[in-house]
Amino acid sequence: MTMNRSFSREFLVSCLAIAIGLGVTPSLAQAQAPTQASRVLPDFTDLVEQVGPSVVNIRTLEKVSARDAQAGSPDEEMQELFRRFFGVPMPAPNGPRQQRPNRPQPEQEQPRGVGSGFILSADGFVMTNAHVVEGADQVLVTLPDKREFKARIVGTDKRSDVAVLKIETTGLPAVRIGDVSRLKVGEWVMAIGSPFGLDNSVTAGIVSAKQRDTGDYLPFIQTDVAINPGNSGGPLINMRGEVIGINSQIYSRSGGFMGISFAIPIDEAIRVSEQLRTTGRVQRGRLGVQIDQVSKEVAESLGLTKTQGALVRGVEQGSPAEKAGLEPGDIILKFDGKPIEKSSDLPRMVGNTKPGTKSTIQVWRRGSLVDKQITVGEFEPEAPAKKAAAPAEKPVTSSAAKFLGLAVSDLTDAQKKELKVRGGVRVDAATEAAARAGIQEGDVILALANTETPSVQVLEALVSKVDRAKPVSLLIRRGEWAQYIVIRPSSQKP
Fold first, then answer.
1. Domains plus CATH for the chain?
2. Residue 217 and residue 99: Cα distance in Å, rounded?
3. 261 annotated active-site
4. Using one digit for the tens of pLDDT, what is the confidence trace for 257-275?
């Protein structure tokens, strides 16, 4: 029995060796099949059939007078061309042209632009770009089945470039929303839209980058999908047939596609659209700080182990940040426990926070961690910076800070009242070191080397003690903002 079993094993091994020698390896071929199949280019036909019915064409109209509408007619354009090349008016074909009576002209609607969009819900909500419908007097939405509807603009948000429209119909095929966090660089994606007015055009490519910083609040998705004028507002679709972005921008030197396109992440767009549908506008939180990137040199000089966070350059007077005790020079490391890897993370986190929310900010200040409680304010359009009032009386001038590149004078009572400060020193001119540091005429110096400067006399005393071989910090006021600026003076005596 033992002999037979040994013989059987040897026989099977011999047969297997012969089969391999003859190239008969069915199991190996089967194992390699999925790898080879995965290298085949994707087929987008099913995706087009699935998502295509949800993509719409958007046309906008604007009202103009009949005279303005005729100004762009071929006849007017030809006359302008004749004037440019020959320097004289184009002669009328049948004698002199009759002057039209100068009377009120009725308004006419003429085409303004073309874009794309997609259906959010079966009851007629449509998403597109804000810039597609901006300034339009009428918006027309055409479905793939050629039905056309007048659309109502529910709301627009210029900062995110998102708009929501409403058409009065039901039973529409809505898109499926994807998970942007699952998106990977190199992944295939597809776009459907109306480039140059050509309805239902399909283009495809790959994701080139994620979290591309080109705006204050939006980390764009970068792709190499062909996007051209008219594609704006159309969907970016993954291979599961889900919308993961809104095609919004392109990088171009010619006005046409050059291989770099940007899409708004759909999670950000949905967050905006929900507010637009509820209130017609978007509320965003704000702190009232000017921020900058934390460079490697700054991180090392302040004792940070890694380059992270947002460097506070300035604090707005009366802002939530000032009330919470934030100071220029602080580095914000966390907001509500979430780490800030780069400075652009902060405005997005704060912007997505409901105004009035009490939050915790962790900052790095002079070598130690400090937690600050802050009540998030509501973002409003920034008021233009106010210039200092013209002096009612001649101010006292001084050149004590000349080696810093500064010519300064005392503030008048009127200037103090307007700026709402007890005292300070006005910059009359900034040259050399001060100019290189970014100080401008009209800035008000509130402190030098962390000591208040209520007058030129105090500033003179402080300047006399400054080590001219070392940088010196100034706290200045510019408009509604206060910020620290470091001047690196020349070591030469004046």
1. 176-272 (2.40.10.10), 285-378 (2.30.42.10), 397-487 (2.30.42.60)
2. 54
3. no
4. 778 899 999 999 999 999 9
